[in-house]
Automatic annotation (TrEMBL):
Gene3D superfamilies: Photosystem II 12 kDa extrinsic protein. This is ComEA family DNA-binding protein. It comes from the Bacteria. Pfam families: HHH_3. InterPro entries: Endo/Exo/Phosphatase_dom_1, RuvA_2-like. Coiled coil: none annotated.
């Protein structure tokens, strides 16, 4: 092989590698894309208009709760007075403080959908 033929062969091989790299490069190293931001109006939040429950009182018995119970500051006795809350669940609620929403309360073991539905109008955070 003559020196000029060898030079052209190397040049052709180099050009072939450059073309292959430009062709296959995006497949191996894709370009990062910025996320698209869409402006969509959200529907208004549903308003919960739950009436406050009335607790019966007598001359000798006053209810432990009047109005809403703050889960972050209520005593064990006040928590036990809530429906579907016994001594062990009240202790777990106290151990899981602080609470900011019903989602935080839902993480407590023993609190399920029916308990959340019963406690929603009775508790605050």
């Amino acid at each position: 092989m003559f020196p000029s033929e060898r030079r052209w062969t190397l040049l052709l091989a180099g050009a072939l590698l450059v073309v292959a790299g430009l062709t296959l490069g995006p497949a191996f190293f894709p370009a990062a894309h910025a996320p698209t931001v869409m402006r969509v109006d959200l529907p208004p939040p549903a308003q919960v208009q739950a009436a406050m429950p009335e607790y019966p009182t007598t001359a000798s018995v006053q209810p432990l709760i009047s109005g809403r119970v703050n889960l972050n500051s209520a005593s064990l006795e006040q928590l036990e007075a809530l429906p579907k809350v016994g001594p062990s669940l009240a202790a777990r609620i106290v151990a899981g403080r602080p609470y900011r929403s019903l989602a935080d309360l839902d993480r407590v073991k023993g609190v399920g959908p029916s308990t959340l539905q019963a406690l929603t109008p009775l508790v605050t955070f």
